[in-house]
Amino acid sequence: MKDEVTAETCAEAVVSPRPAKKGMFADIPVDVGLVYEGERIRKPDMYAELGGPKVKHKFELLRVKRLDEIEDGKITVVGQEIQNLKERSSNPFGIYIEAAGKKLEEEMEGVFERRIHYFSNYIEGFMHLNQRYDIWLRVSKKSVEKGLTLKHIGEVLKRLYKSELPIIEKIQITFITDPTKVEEMHSETTKVYDARDTRARGLKDEDVDAFYGCKLCQSFAPTHLCIITPQRPGNCGALNWFDGRASSIADPKGSLFEIKKGKVIDEIAGEYDNANKVIKEKTLGEITRVQLYTVFGFPHTSCGCFEGVTFYIPEVDGLGLVHRDFKEAAINGLRFPAMADSTAGGRQVDGFHGISIEYLRSPKFLQVDGGWSRVVWMPADLKERVKDFIPKEVADKIATEKDTGTIDDLRKFLEARDHPVIERWKAAPVEAAVPAEAAEPVPAGPAAEVAIPTASGFTIVLKNAKIHAEKVIIRRRKKKE
Asked: Hey, which CATH number is domain 34-177, 3.30.390.10, 3.30.1650.10, 1.10.8.100, 3.30.2310.20?
């Protein structure tokens, strides 16, 4: 007797089931592949956030161990799995990876640690940003509905590490969502990061004939390429010159590669002809010149993983600094996310510059622009963090949010402390390339303004600006109907 055919069975017959997944990720409930690099998970689509700007304690750390110290393939979750976290919550989070291999060395830790960012972004519905103590991860609602867990993410990381880096023979991965455990381990991780950075500070740019390029973040910023030198670490702060060298040896076809310096174009600005050539090639012609030690003209590009921003304050002809964890508005009235949006994306933005905290400790820190003698404002906690590297003669002359709240307050503070930037006010009063009859007289000093009337009835006010242009075109914007 034949089976009875009903409307329900007909409906089932015409709906094709999803094809069975094949390959090394067949057992993972979401897709894994290059196509998901650069995927952004917006807040409405987010199930939960791991780390991020709302959370104080977060980290990712990779340590090299002996072969007998590791249980290969072990994946552990300390705390709640993703599905048990409160929906749309921000959670303390830690990733701790232990790797072993006969040829592995401690100097390789930072390089392999940065691969967490790279490999995580292969996972559908899982976004990884930043590094070290600044990690910011999001998992989408759709991927959680499909069954994605931290253990699945660990499986993906484990397989990618061992397939793409055969030098790793054993690996075990621990995810930590328990807030107490994250906080306990957080202080230990910062000691490891500091030790790595200290090890790299003795070398100078002049001591080497090659720098290293890093394109790890090009999935988010296709026109960005980090140039890592002994005295200018990567914008993320996670990779230094020694990391670049170790990575190029361990993984010659990887994302970090050697760049011969070539002919020196400007040693003070940090511009080299072959470095420019490589930058042009790797950014498909979008960026043709980079000067490593200035925030003006041809500044180094930024992706989105930078730890801080240097920004120009035209009212006082000085530079401000702000870092990712500063929640208030900076002295220019902008919060870090606003300045980060203006700086990121692989663009060269005159007067804005994404940097690492370690770069603030470099003797070449913005040396073209005056370095620390040009810095007039920074958050108090950042100042405390790098105080040993700020020249003593200028340290107490740099204002913080505790000293000033407005540009006028800042100007008074700088005058009272006799900041070196005041000499710039005297030496270079405002210039304006406008007809003499059109402009008001230009007073000297940092508060100088030039009002330029236009034929359309607008008035353009310039404050402490030096403008050199062949042509300026101003058009009225039409209102949308």
From this structure: 3.30.1650.10
